[in-house]
Amino acid sequence: MRFIIAVACISVASALLPTLPTRRQLRLRVQRTQKLGAFKLFGNQGTRSPLVNWYLEELGTPYEFVNAAAVDRSDPGYPNPFGSMPAAADDGGVELFESGAILLYLADKYGGLDTPEKRAEVTKWVMWANASLDPICFVENDRGQVLDTKLRGEPKAIKTLDALLAGREWLVQGGGGKEASFGAADVAVASYVLYVLMFFPQVKIAPKWPHLAQYCARAASRPAYARAFGSDLAAQLADSALRT
User: Fold this and answer.
1) In the chain, pLDDT over 70 holds for what percent of residues?
2) For the whole model, what pTM was predicted?
3) DSSP bridge pairs for 41
């Protein structure tokens, strides 16, 4: 599924567009750190690649960012045979597509997931974010354009998520390694809710889900999030998450 956003700019104070956006209007002004390394990430502002950038920045893993809009995605050498974004390539001929799959690969190789038990704790959250949280956060038309969000209401799954976050800083508790605290599970879940606050600035989550709001504010306040998305936006979203 393509991840196309329905906003003209990244300011959380901007009003929603009255009509469906054009491709030009879909551009997000996202700052990215481009580093030279074995890992290569293909994406652009209108895809889920920024959340992968976020996790790479958290890990401190050297990587190269390639604007996939400027390459021939029908070429057999492109890492995703379907031609969509994000996609990634790593040493040893590893090719990846789908944001969740890329996050899990990075967590496995660089994030300390060295046992089946640790992988299970993280994988269930990444899969839940892609399969269950995504359709709650983003209501799309048949062309993949985001029209609205179900966070205007009170989805049962979000109530459950809020209750689970009570008394815990991050989703995965214990287990050792880097994933014992913040990790790929949080990137997968927090990024989607923060995208909602970015695209639909009038939506308030704190009055209904205070634990989720505090969780998202903590996530947006992380230095790596600011490096991936821009410091101004990160500060705005941290404040927006707590708005009542």
Assistant:
1) 82
2) 0.83
3) 65, 88
The percent of residues in the chain predicted with pLDDT above 90, rounded, is: 74
CA 6-49-142 angle, 5° bins: 40
pLDDT score, position 226:
96
Q: Would you say 74 and 28 are in contact if contact means Cβ atoms under 8 Å apart? A: no
Which residue type occupies 128?
A: W
CB of 7 within 8 A of CB of 198? yes
Q: Can you tell me the distance from the alpha carbon of 232 to that of 98, in angstroms, rounded to the nearest whole number?
A: 28
CB 210 within 8 A of CB 204: no
Nearest to 200 by CA among 128, 127, 150: 150
Within 13 Å, how many C-alpha atoms sit on residue 195's CB side?
31
C-alpha distance across the termini of the chain, in Å? 33
What's the CA gap between 22 and 193, in Å, rounded? Answer: 23
Could you report the per-residue pLDDT of 91-129, keeping only the tens digit for each? 989 999 999 999 999 999 999 998 999 999 999 999 999
d(CA 164, CA 198): 24
Instruction: Label each residue of 116-148 as H, E or C.
Output: HHHHHHHHHHHHHHHHHHHHHHCEECCCCEEEE
